Amino acid sequence: MNKPSIYTKQLIILLALLCLIGQMGCSRNMTYPNNPSEAVPLDTWLNSYVFVKMVDKLKNCSFMKKRAFIIGKANGESVQDSIDDLTCAIRNNLISHLLNYPEINVILKHPVHKIRRPYAIEELTCDSGKDYDMIITIDIKENARNQVHYVRADIRAIDISEGAFIRGFSIYHPKILLNDFQYKQMNSKPMPDEYLRGSQYLPFNNSQHHEMAAFLAHNMSCVFKKKEGTFQKKVFIDNSKIKAPFKNIFNMLEKQLVLCNEIQLVRNSQKADYHFAADIVEVDKNDALFQFWIITTDQSKELFIPGLVSKAYFSNSLHKKRLISGKWKVNSLPDKECVGFMHIRHHQLNCFQGDFFAPDKKTLLKKGIFIYTNNHRVHWAFYDRISRQTFKAKGVIDEKEKKIFFNLKSFPVYRQIFQEFVYIN
After folding, report:
1. Which domain holds residue 156?
2. What is the tens place of the pLDDT at every residue in 310-361?
3. pLDDT tens digits, one per residue of 168-189
């Protein structure tokens, strides 16, 4: 038998290296391996492809493995605070599959409403008390309406600290076939997504003091349970510096902690090993959005106990109309040449959505960019599939001049662009 030539050996080595590179990191998009023009049933796509690829990424991608995450619904670039029956069913299937892998840190939420649930310590499910810094999103969109139920499906991941989608992670198929029942689920009335409750995407409101108290009590009981054997758990709740409406939440927190049966409350502060106190941080003055922290100190109230904390987002009023909503002309700087138009609408609290049009005002270039505000500061980010670039922008609102000035950056091919948004109406 003839021995392989040196060129054959080099070709084999090259192919092996290409296969190895294809398996590294999370820098590539993932599409269905067959012909994308061919329709595939939803269950087939999930079982034969999505589950496998998602497990591979969550176990092996250096930027995603071991990170705590939840799963939610997206619409374009925006996380949605409500969810339809189909997306909820897909999420349940994903979670059931991911639970087979202990190294994958998916966060569970208890299915029973907290205010109606009598806790017992052996039934205290503590995954929902863990912090998460990533959201895996499911985006299902209907194709052109016809007798066959075709949809586009995209599964992506958001880095919460960056407020942007993780570059390169996208499990996408343009032609998924739904059966009649799944199509009905997709068109069901969206309901608030309780997985997001207490986060910036779905904060507690004025009518949910009981739910917020139960949420915080559950989380504090879980962090104490984790420290069991190390900490004595006699706790005094100090609400002396809390004012309405937050004092009402603190009073309800006390009752919920008794139900949790993990922390022993005492009335005499001198007999307590630890003290609970609240720290309220204003996140957005215009939206009356707060972070409500429960912190733990020692008896002297001078030493903070690391790890024994919990927080929830809380809105103390309805959203107030902001200048940012409306139509904006986008000019490049310093030449002030028109590069397009942005139509911005309010989504939830300090979150907005924008559609970017070409200078002809008709060609839609990017739909559903999610935009966040913090007082007079604005930031947004999106991934452009055509150029395969991520764009991130930070800006400042000038309400007097009715303008927003942006510093826009792109990567991996770095560019820095300066723009101004001029308010039209």
Report:
1. 30-196
2. 888 887 754 444 578 889 999 999 999 999 999 998 776 667 888 999 999 9
3. 788 999 999 999 999 999 988 8
* Residue 297: count of CB within 10 angstroms of its CB: 16
**Statement to judge: residues 192 and 221 lie in one domain:** no
DSSP assignment of 27-92, as one string? Answer: -S-EE-SS-TTS-EEHHHHIIIIIHHHHHHHHHH-TTTTT--EEEEEEETTEE-SEE-HHHHHHHH
- 307 and 381 in a single domain? The answer is no
**Beta-bridge partner residues of 294:** 278, 310
Mean of the per-residue pLDDT values of the chain: 79
Q: Which helix (H) or strand (E) holds 96?
A: helix 85-98
Cβ neighbors of 197 (< 8 A, separation 6 or more) are 204, 211, 215
CB-CB contact of 365 with 357 (8 Å): yes
Instruction: Report yes or no on 15 lying in a domain.
Output: no
Give the model's pLDDT for residue 21: 43
pLDDT of residue 8: 57
Per-state percent for the chain, helix, strand, coil, to nearest 5: 25, 40, 35
Is the CB of residue 384 less than 8 Å from the CB of residue 366? yes
Which amino acid is residue 417, in one-letter code?
A: I
Cα(70)–Cα(92) distance, rounded to whole angstroms?
11
pLDDT digit string, tens, across residues 53-76: 999 999 988 888 888 898 999 887
The C-alpha atoms of residue 138 and residue 115 are separated, in whole angstroms, by 29
Residue 396 corresponds to which amino acid?
Answer: V
Residue 24 forms part of a structural domain: no
The encoded tokens of residue 50 equal: 């999505």
391 and 350 part of one domain: yes
Residue 12 pLDDT > 90, yes or no?
Answer: no
379 forms bridges with which residues in the sheet? 372, 394
CA dist., res. 412 & res. 399, Å (int): 33
Asked if 107 and 128 count as a contact pair (C-beta separation under 8 A), the reply is yes
**Integer Cα distance of 65 and 395 in angstroms:** 32
The amino acid at residue 190 is P
Encoding tokens for residue 160?
């919460």
Backbone angles phi, psi at 231, to 5 degrees: -110, 135
Q: What pLDDT, on the 0 to 100 scale, is given for residue 129?
A: 53
Cα gap 59→1, rounded to integer Å: 43
The helix (H) or strand (E) run that includes residue 16 is: helix 6-23
Token pair belonging to 13:
């080595």
What is the Cα gyration radius of the chain? Answer: 25
Of residues 82 and 113, more confidence is placed in 82
What confidence score (pLDDT) does residue 317 get?
57
